[in-house]
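Action item from last week, closing it out:
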Amino acid sequence: MGKVLVVGAGPAGMMAAVKAAENGASVTLLEKTERVGKKMAITGKGRCNMTNAASVPEIIKNIPGNGAFLNSAIRFFDNGDVVAFFESQGVLTVTERGGRVFPASSKASDAVDALLRRLHELHVAVRLRAEVRGLMAEDGRVSGVRLSSGEVIAADAVIVATGGASYPRTGSTGDGFRMAEAVGHTVETPTPALVPLETEEDWPKALSGLSLKNVRVRLFSDSEPREKIGEAFGEMMFTHFGVTGPIILTLSRVAAMYLRTHEALDMELDLKPALDAETLEKRVQRDFETYKNKQVKNAMVDLLPARLIAPVLDLAYIDEGKPVHQITRAERLRVVEALKRLPLMISRTRPIDEAIVTAGGVSVRELNPKTMESKLVRGLYFAGEVADVDGFTGGYNLQAAFSMGAAAGTWSAKKSEE
């Protein structure tokens, strides 16, 4: 019976430990914090969006960070397998808008408990407050790990599933990156992904908490020639520092990558994407006719949330107290322009420790896509966010973690017997 060590008890690590044990290995799961699944317990706003019901090609398309690398792993352990695993442990699931799959109870803790229950059934040794300081390798093969206490644990295979560098309070503090580099692996620069964006302007602060639905956001380079670098449609929200919400998080990856080499980028909000400029002008004209004896700020109550009227008028260079019957056509066109292309400058992302996931990590070029084994150190595997893999919201990141963990666990057990 081969001995497998799994470092990190997040979704990838727990699934890796389960699959290694199911395939006959003697497994020890090492977690540096006081309990397993800390980050998993807060995913999906505490509901745990465990996977997505989309097809495998669609799932891969929604993992912009090296999704193609996961083709074999996801087909090996796909979304149907994820659902079947949890339901076998008594966790019924529901599929909601956008194919998002949750525990029927809406409790992330049920999913964490299911994994822990299966680990106990398989007699996996779970060691808490066991912080791994480094990997041990001899002659190009892993031989075990050294804990911060100085204890050395020998193993036939080691699976590193320590997470990225986001949500450090859950234990994801970049440990795996340092371990990987110490044995010769390349670590692509960790960058926040699925993270809110900060604006140069202050006016969003006054709108903090205001949510907008069915808007379109476009991102552009801040230098000539001006190029569009991202676009998304859906829901967003203003905050005390800038913008957040589903479509902002979706765009944050390309924003973060751009901001690594540029000081800022331009954002445009289309507040009325269903109407072209000509149709919108007729709509504005009709509203202004209806409210012709009012101040212009009161003539836009049917067009916009009340708190957003003042910024739009300000960006259209119109005094909000001006009577509607004094508004010229040129001013009306400026209102239309502001509604269709409300400008903001993005100066930075929020810090990586506020990001939902980390882009960057152990280079996938140095990993076997079928087994997750290192191409540099035999018997060493990487699974989950520690690798340079990241997806959009919607269950794609947890699916990637479970698939990578299942592949690493299965193959580490099989190869440790060789």
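Closing note: The mean pLDDT is 94.
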